[in-house]
């Protein structure tokens, strides 16, 4: 179970860390070119984070959509056998 948590949580944590880093660089960097680049990267990290989280919810929904009815049928079969 812990491995599954790391598979789900680690990419989110990494994306959030890089997103915060780019936000700090965009705010405090003395180089204008680097600030502009950091704002662009921050937007890209925001898009990547949103896409990963939406993919994750779609994946969980696909599993739940099939697992819940199968679980109910298995419980009914076991109880009435």
Write up this protein.
This protein is mostly helical. It has one domain. The chain has two helices and no strands. Helix 1 runs antiparallel to helix 2. The mean pLDDT is 86.
Furnish the topology, listing elements before pairings.
Blueprint: H1 2-28, H2 32-79
Helix pairs in contact: 1-2
Summed up, what is this model?
By secondary structure, this protein is mainly alpha-helical. It is built from two helices and no strands. The protein has helices spanning 2-28, 32-79.
Based on the model shown, name its key terms.
single chain; 81 residues; mainly alpha; 2 helices; 0% strand
Q: What is the tally of beta strands?
A: 0
* Number of domains as seen in the coordinates: 1
Structural class: mainly alpha
Helix content: over 70%
N- and C-termini, Cα separation:
31 Å
* Rg, Cα atoms, Å: 21 Å
Low-confidence stretches: none
Note the run of SSEs as H and E: HH
Shape: rod-shaped
The biggest sheet, with number of strands, parallel, antiparallel or mixed sense and barrel status, is:
none
| Percent of residues in β-strands | under 5%
Count of DSSP-assigned helices: 2
What is the residue-mean pLDDT, rounded to a whole number?
A: 86
């Amino acid at each position: 179970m812990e491995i599954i948590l790391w598979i789900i949580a680690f990419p989110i944590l990494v994306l959030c860390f890089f997103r915060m880093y780019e936000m700090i660089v965009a705010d405090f960097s003395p180089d204008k070119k680097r600030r502009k680049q950091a704002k662009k990267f921050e937007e890209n990290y925001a898009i990547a984070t949103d896409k990963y989280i939406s993919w994750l919810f779609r994946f969980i929904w696909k599993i739940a959509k099939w697992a819940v009815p199968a679980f109910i049928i298995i419980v009914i079969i076991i109880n009435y056998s």
